[in-house]
Amino acid sequence: MKIYCEKDYEAMSRRVAGIIAAQVILKPDCVLGLATGSSPEGAYKELVRRYQAGELDFSKVTSVNLDEYKGLAGDNDQSYRYFMNKHLFDHVNIDKSRTFVPDGTEADEEKSCKAYNDILRREGPVDLQLLGMGFNGHIGFNEPDSFFEKETHCVALTESTIEANKRFFEKEEDVPRKAYTMGIGNIMQAKSILVIVSGEGKADIVAKAFQGPVTPQVPASILQFHKDVTLVGDQAALGKLLG
Ligand code: GLP
């Protein structure tokens, strides 16, 4: 695993954007696996800046996002589709019809998951998968469990995730209780994986995920078995891992 420890959030975001930009330049028709959350926001901003400076061309890129809240439509400002449009897609020349996010509006869970698995099979493999990490070690919305779920599935969010994500909503009751997410198997199929973590609050779980036992109780720990993982974090988040 490659580790980049950057001094702060801005430096971390520049590093992550640089790695994504390199992927797009080296393979203009690449498939990017994308993530939401506060960790990648700065990297998307930097990618937009580079695009506007004429350094990047997204016209042939395909993207697949990790997850989406069940019940939220793309025009809901809390949906992950909305997040992606707002932070990246609306500002670069990516073909929106080539950007995929699980369908949160599909009430039939089996149908929604099958449709997304079909998309992943058709468009994959992902060249570069960007991942954040939840405070409990979740990746995408793969919550701690007794086994690793392989493909796209519908999950009941844990109390700690609802608690962590309520900052984006008006009231805690507004946080959806379920979400559609790529499975661990889908994530592990990516050719390379780029993990981004920031803030002291992540320090414990980052150390556990990369130095502790591989267990579905810490979903991100499975990344120890992937052959091409790059971890980028600020000093606060990597403090415990690097000692
Ligand atoms: C959310 C998302 C994850 C994300 C994680 C961390 O629950 N489903 O994909 O990686 O939280 O978010 P943040 O970067 O805001 O800490």
Q: On the 0-100 scale, what is the average pLDDT? A: 97
Structural class: alpha/beta
Order of helices and strands: EHEHEEHEHEEHEHEHEH
Kindly estimate the percentage of residues that lie in beta strands according to DSSP.
Answer: 15-25%
Number of domains: 1
CATH architecture: 3-Layer(aba) Sandwich
The CATH class designation is Alpha Beta
Number of strands: 10
Helix content: 25-40%
Number of helices: 8
Biggest β-sheet, characterized? 7 strands, parallel
CATH topology: Rossmann fold
Which overall shape is indicated by the principal axes computed on the Cα atoms?
A: globular
Uncertain parts: none
| Strand order across the largest sheet | 1-10-9-6-2-3-5
Rounded Rg: 17 Å
| Distinct small-molecule ligands in the complex | 2-amino-2-deoxy-6-O-phosphono-alpha-D-glucopyranose
- The termini sit apart by 17 Å
